[in-house]
Amino acid sequence: MATVQAVLGNLTVTERGILTAINTGASSLSFVGSGFIVLCYLLFKELRKFSFKLVFFLALSDMFCSFFSIIGDPSKGFFCYAQGYTTHFFCVASFLWTTTIAFTLHRTVVRHKTDVEDLEPMFHLYVWGTSVVMTVIRSIGNDHGHIRRLGTWCWAQSGRTGKVVHFITFYAPLWGAILFNGITYFQVIRMLNNATRMLVGMSERAYQSDARPDTKALNRWGYYPLILIGSWFFGTINRIHDFIEPGHKIFWLSVLDVGMAALMGLFNSIAYGLNSSVRRAIYERLDLLPESCRRWFPKSLKPRGQQQESELVSLKIEDQR
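Request: output the structure for the sequence above.
Response:
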């Protein structure tokens, strides 16, 4: 993973081994979680709506980012470069896909536009194009004449210029995405809360219970920007500290850095992917199994009613046309 390459420095062999284990374990969880969302999209036709297609590409990016973070340090230089830059590419693509999801919600709910599906080619150009540009620019600051193994990661030696370039090509767009998502979801939640209050004020008491699931979904949307913040806050602090004091590594900060960043895919798969539509699709398949088998599965898989359709992925843009 992009952040792992900058945390090993002058750590001991034991500390590097601990970071290796943390990275492998956390990345494996992210790989399984994001892979599960990808598999659901491919297997369940009812999930192949535009809104969930964006979640699919987010999970796909997380899956590849986690995979290349797990595979370790190849013995040959070319594959070493490929691993380092591939993880950088897919990690950048991951948080850029979250901005397309936020943009889609904002354009549909706040601006009342119904043309978001027509923007899909622009989304791909924006995400994959920006990821390629950031990855290529990142290579400027790397000293490719010095490649060595540190733990299980491929390491391209970088000087002070390389650290600046890494921050510009990774952490700058990352926090730009966090800021954009935060502002966007705030506007979406504020508008829908105002609409809900107006509806309750003009309606009978019966309508108030109908609005509660929507409010619950809105509260969930408010946590989405916190995923990126939680995943990369410690990594950002670690990069700043490493820039100021390059010869001094803080082990506990490196542990939080590697662990939280590697769990980003798992966090995204739970927040964006495991919604009522996915649970309903799974439960419908489980319903075909014998009763003796169904009782072994958690009851939480069963959808709680059609009102849960207010979640992000069940946003039916086509119904507004």
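Residues 160-202 form the longest helix (43 residues).
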